[in-house]
Amino acid sequence: MDRAAKSQVTASTGRIRRLLPLGALLACLLTSLASSTTEDVHSIAARVDRHYNALHALQAEFTETVRGNGMDRTESGTLWIRRPGHMRWEYREPRTKLFVTDGKTAWFYAPGDRQARRTAFKSLEDLRSPLAYLLGRAKLEKELDGLSLAPDVTPKSSGNIMLRGVPRGMGGRVAQVLLEITPEGRIDRIVAEGQDDAVTEFRFSESKENGAVDAALIDDLHFRFTPPKGVEVVDGGLEE
Known about the structure:
This protein folds into 2 domains: 1-38; 41-97 and 120-214, Lipoprotein localisation LolA/LolB/LppX (outer membrane lipoprotein receptor (LolB), chain A), CATH 2.50.20. It starts with a helix and ends in a 5-residue tail after the last strand. It has helices spanning 3-37, 41-53, 140-143, and strands at residues 57-68, 71-82, 86-93, 97-101, 105-109, 115-120, 144-149, 161-167, 174-181, 187-194, 199-209, 232-235. It has 3 helices and 12 strands, in the order ααββββββαββββββ. It has 240 residues and is α+β, with helices and mostly antiparallel strands.
């Protein structure tokens, strides 16, 4: 090998040697970045807890969709939540109806019906109940058994994260619940998959929290219900 060729090989070897530490450093940086941007289920659940434990009032528009087991319907309206234990769902479309609880008694009534259904809130087994944990200080990991990441489910909004679990005490009715979580720790979507293969989905938008909610819409009267005259009260479940 002539002197020029040897010189070229030596230069190339030197460049490779210089690049190897740089490549190793780059690999370490990429690994570190990946680990820092991938959260585990515990940190995500803790972020949700922090968001809602600082919440005392919430108002949001909702869309509820039920499909499967012979059903296919979409309804919408407004939800109000006030701690402790108050929740009001006003359905507007396609039919007006009301689901409301003051933390002691839960009611379901549709104007024009001859009956209003009533049950004790503590015994409520309703597919809205994944939101019930927001009504008091609680931990998401205690409310949903087997809480885990759901990387196989695509969120509706880019940047959100999907979690899955089973609401405590509802394993006989619900196969799993999927929660779509925003970077701020807000729950934007709930998908409840029933053991009967029916799927109920709640989507939330236009959320207002705490002082942004009109005080008149979260006073005690807003979460109470008095059956209209002539309407029979039926005690038991609130299945729609």
